[in-house]
């Protein structure tokens, strides 16, 4: 379950993009107790109130309950999420995992079938997921796994081929933008299974941004029901394919930077990434030291061992702002410290923050990053 527990990543900037609601005190109930369309009165004044439900809060609560091993509570939240969106592949698979951890083979198999039907077809991952260890020996689950394996096999093998595609990016300029003035360029790099439309919302939480903010869409789509989500690295077991997808993401990002520079009077270029976005940010900053002035990384798990001594010698002037919460479940804390110490020992200046709470990106830390940016 760990790999697809992505709702915290998707909405890690919830507290940045939206006002938090007091979901803790809310009672989980059905939407309207509508058992059939005929029982819906479309003329009621409050008929659409269910659309105001903040599903992001429930996603976070569901995942928190899972990590706290309160599996019954997690199942309640996942079921509530599914009552609002029957195409939610993440909640469906996570619910199957939760029932597996509760030792409920029938329910675990039932929702695993539904997750596969929605598009979760990584059979290797399903077979190795330790969340199913309690039910894996039951006959109902053995039968389910055999059937699912055959279903996925019948879909055929997956192969990858490089192709040309038109990608998009969002560009936001300061309120008092003047075409003859030079502005720094900040490239926002969203996390795993997110989108430019979600990540660009952090713009409104900068205090008084005096820079151009561009948010490119990551190139590789993620299947999450009907939602359009994207990632910077393709999902594949082949190391060669993974490296190829990394290279394509980096080349694409460089093209975005060069195009914006061609069309605007740009000063320094800064990359601002969240979780997986920090990885492609580091890669580009290290490979193109003459193109990138600095990097702002929220929740990074970049491995210092991936950086060569030659690369370090060429990025002595790279400016770094890093925010890693000690409770961020999606980063390796030891690896974070190792990265910080390794870069500092190489003579690179870092402004390093450890915000309170479970999030490496908050409204407060975002404003600190803006102040840091203005100093440079």
From the alpha carbons, calculate the radius of gyration and give it in angstroms: 22 Å
- Based on DSSP secondary structure assignment, what is the total number of beta strands? 9
Order of helices and strands: HHHHHHHHEEHEEEHEHEHEHEH
Fourth-tier CATH superfamily name of the largest domain: Alpha/Beta hydrolase fold, catalytic domain
Mean pLDDT: 87
From the 3D structure, determine the CATH topology of the largest domain. Rossmann fold
Q: What's the helical proportion of residues?
A: 40-55%
| Known CATH architecture of the largest domain | 3-Layer(aba) Sandwich
CATH hierarchy, class of the largest domain: Alpha Beta
Q: What is the count of DSSP helices, taking H or I runs of 4+ residues?
A: 14
Strand order of the largest sheet: 1-3-2-6-7-8-9
Shape summary: globular
What is the CA–CA distance across the termini?
41 Å
Structural class: alpha/beta
Total separate domains: 2
- Low-pLDDT regions: 2-30
Strand content: 5-15%
* Main pleated sheet: 7 strands, mixed
């Amino acid at each position: 379950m760990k790999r697809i527990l992505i709702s915290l990543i998707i909405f890690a900037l919830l507290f940045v993009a939206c006002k938090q609601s007091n979901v803790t005190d809310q009672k989980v109930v059905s939407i309207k107790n509508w058992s059939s369309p005929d029982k819906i009165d479309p003329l009621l004044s409050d008929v659409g109130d269910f659309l105001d439900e903040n599903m992001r809060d429930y996603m976070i609560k569901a995942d928190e309950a899972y990590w706290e091993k309160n599996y019954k509570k997690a199942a309640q939240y996942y079921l509530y999420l599914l009552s609002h969106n029957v195409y939610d592949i993440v909640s469906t698979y996570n619910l199957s995992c939760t029932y597996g951890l509760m030792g409920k083979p029938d329910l675990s198999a039932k929702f695993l079938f539904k997750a596969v039907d929605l598009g979760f077809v990584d059979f290797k991952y399903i077979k190795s997921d330790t969340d199913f260890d309690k039910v894996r020996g039951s006959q109902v689950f053995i039968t389910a796994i055999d059937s699912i394996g055959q279903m996925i096999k019948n879909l055929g093998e997956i192969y990858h081929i490089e192709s040309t595609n038109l990608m998009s990016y969002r560009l936001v300029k300061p309120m008092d933008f003047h075409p003859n003035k030079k502005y720094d360029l900040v490239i926002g790099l969203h996390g795993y299974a997110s989108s430019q439309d979600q990540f660009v919302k952090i713009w409104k939480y900068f205090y008084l941004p005096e820079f151009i903010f561009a948010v490119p869409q990551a190139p590789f789509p993620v299947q999450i029901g009907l939602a359009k989500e994207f990632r910077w690295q393709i999902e594949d077991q082949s190391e060669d394919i993974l490296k190829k997808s990394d290279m394509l993401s980096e080349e694409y990002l460089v093209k975005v930077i060069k195009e914006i520079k061609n069309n605007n009077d740009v000063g320094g270029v800064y990359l601002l990434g969240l979780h997986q976005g920090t990885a492609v940010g580091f890669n580009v900053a290290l490979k193109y030291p003459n193109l990138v002035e600095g990097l702002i990384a929220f929740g990074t798990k970049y491995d210092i061992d991936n950086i060569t001594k030659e690369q370090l010698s060429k990025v002595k002037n790279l400016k770094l702002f890093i925010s890693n919460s000690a409770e961020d479940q999606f980063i390796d804390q030891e690896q974070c410290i190792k990265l910080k110490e390794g870069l500092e020992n190489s003579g690179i200046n870092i402004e390093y923050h450890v915000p309170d709470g479970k999030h490496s990106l908050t409204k407060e830390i975002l404003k600190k990053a803006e102040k840091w940016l203005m100093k440079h």
